[in-house]
Design goal:
Two copies of one chain form a homodimer. With 329 residues, chain A is of the alpha/beta class. In chain A, 46% of the residues lie in helices and 19% in strands. In chain A, the strands form two sheets. Chain A has a five-stranded mixed β-sheet. A five-stranded mixed β-sheet of chain A has the order 8-7-6-9-10, with helices on both faces. In chain A, strand 2 and strand 3 form a beta hairpin. In chain A, helix 6 runs antiparallel to helix 8 and helix 6 packs across helix 9. In chain A, 54% of the residues are buried. Chains A and B meet through strand 8, helix 6 and helix 8 of A and strand 8, helix 6 and helix 8 of B. Chains A, B: Pfam families: BcrAD_BadFG (PF01869).
């Protein structure tokens, strides 16, 4: 058993991370590749990044020791339904010298498993987008939101950025004076916090600055809202509260009232010590007072645990989770 | 004076309308061209459509009788700031045989003038987009919203379409059964009102159906919301109420509390006998109980009146309005 190695991969839009672990929790290696989502990058490019990350994690490891692997990525169902995508991943796996089977799971399940070993619970993720998923027996069950920026992602980084700009435009329409958050946005988007003599000129300039880029890039303004909320600016705090309410509302579409299973918070806006994470915890506590709320951690380690727990020699998957996945809270 | 002719043009995104009127209110001709907005169609194409509409209106009219003209179009300020655009319009004017000067005004002012002769008031327009403008001495003063679908247009046709789809997606997330409005949307977007065995498959199909087209085309779903509201479907009625609140909120950013000047409703969603128009009237009445609310009418006639009222022989512009602009309410 001590010879057994498991491999986990967390494939994201901007990076791919891999980790190789023994069942005793020894971290033999980690690797990193670029963004490897087959949907956005194409199957071949995604497979190449996967291979890069795998080679990093397996440097100096005899690949015949690897007995199980899991790949977590957004849109896992699409990959599984696409023979060319699956074949590209198979090739990367073989080129890394691996002969064991591997499983592909959604990134939401991997985020969940990086935060808890409980078979049932809820994962709530907010980054650029936002999605909530119910986990049953460590499989993704029902999903809420994740509808994309045009139709959903309520409470996400995109949502925070867009709403912040909308508040600023409304202030300028009313001939009001932008507050601290509005001035941050003006500086970020226009290079100056000054409002033009005709405020409509500033409105037009803001709209042009935003529409010049892809809409989803409004998410890059979310850190300004977070920073302003940290300083207690009422406008930013109100936006954070509304975002938290949206996120918990999404979770409530799939999570039963009175549930006591864990809620795992994931994504860039919820894994740090951010005001949004605090607001979501408070809001979730109001809805499900007896449920533990925990934080997603190392996705690659969570993926490795999902792989390891299926091995016949593993009798106590919860104890194994404590060994393999670094605690987050 | 009876020889004097004025010309008005209402230039929209899908059509350009022209009218030639005597100061006695005799309609000598009307003409129509295709969409003539220089911003979206280019200056030369816009000028060609303008000429087509002008020639229609002036067929059989001695062009030397035309003493004044007004062109109303969205983004009038941009045209005035663009020498090439202005030159193209000058050429069209000359090619139509016209020697008098012409003025260019925003389409919002022309809509306002098609509904009232009062020099001061508010115009509130909802079609694909939404904008409110304060009119002072028959010039556009401050403007609210009109920020486009990504950042604004709250309460517009785009907004109604997007919110209706969002409500449907939330219902499907919750494993609920779509109501009458949801079934209309499913039929329109997917060709069937049936929800898949896995509701998430229907969610994904809806998102794909919407994102396959330009975002602004969500506005084409607005008539479904309106039709459902006419039949009293609570979900549609609630959306209409929210849209009306957004529209009146935009007007409130620029219109003083207690104002008694007229409010003119324009745009495809507010000029008909629609539930949104009724809801906006009711909401506006709550905010400004002593203000008359009227409807925008023939924009080309409104433009012609704006031109005519500047002529030295016009001593009673309000009486002239009654002659030139067909009453709407």
């Amino acid at each position: 058993m001590s010879d057994t190695v498991v491999v986990g991969l967390d494939v994201g839009g901007t990076s791919t991370r891999a980790t190789a672990l023994t069942l005793a929790g020894e971290r033999l290696g980690t690797g990193r590749g670029g963004g490897g989502n087959p949907t956005s990058h194409g199957a071949d490019r995604a497979a190449a990044e996967l291979l890069t990350a795998l080679r990093g994690a397996l440097a100096g490891v005899d690949p015949t020791r690897v007995r199980a692997g899991t790949i977590g990525l957004a849109g896992a169902a699409r990959l599984l339904a696409d023979p060319a995508g699956r074949a590209a991943f198979d090739r990367a796996w073989a080129e890394a010298g691996l002969h064991c089977p591997y499983a592909v799971h959604g990134d939401a399940l991997v985020a969940y498993a990086s935060g808890t070993a409980a078979p049932d619970g809820t994962v709530l993720i907010a980054g650029t987008g936002a999605i909530a998923a119910q986990v049953r027996d460590l499989r993704l069950d029902r999903v809420a939101d994740g509808h994309g920026w045009l139709l959903g992602d309520a409470g996400s980084g995109f949502w925070l950025g867009r709403e912040a700009v909308r508040r600023l435009l409304a202030t300028l329409d009313s001939a009001g004076t932008p507050g601290p958050l509005g001035r941050r946005l003006l500086t970020e988007l226009l290079g100056t916090a000054e409002v033009a003599a005709r405020p409509r000129d500033t409105v037009d300039a803001l709209i042009q600055a935003v529409t010049r880029r892809p809409p989803v890039e409004l998410a890059r303004l979310a850190p300004l809202v977070v920073a302003a909320a940290v300083e207690g600016e009422p406008e930013a705090v109100a936006l954070i509260e509304r975002a938290a309410a949206h996120l918990v509302d999404s979770a409530g579409r799939i999570r039963p009232d009175g549930a006591v299973t864990p809620i795992v918070l994931g994504g860039g806006l919820l894994t740090g010590d951010t005001p949004l994470a605090a607001a979501v915890r408070a809001e979730a506590h109001r809805h499900w007072p007896d449920a533990p709320v925990c934080r997603a951690g190392d996705g690659a380690a969570g993926a490795a645990w999902l792989a390891a727990r299926e091995l016949p020699e593993v009798t106590d998957p919860v104890a194994l989770h404590a060994l393999l996945v670094p605690a987050t809270d």
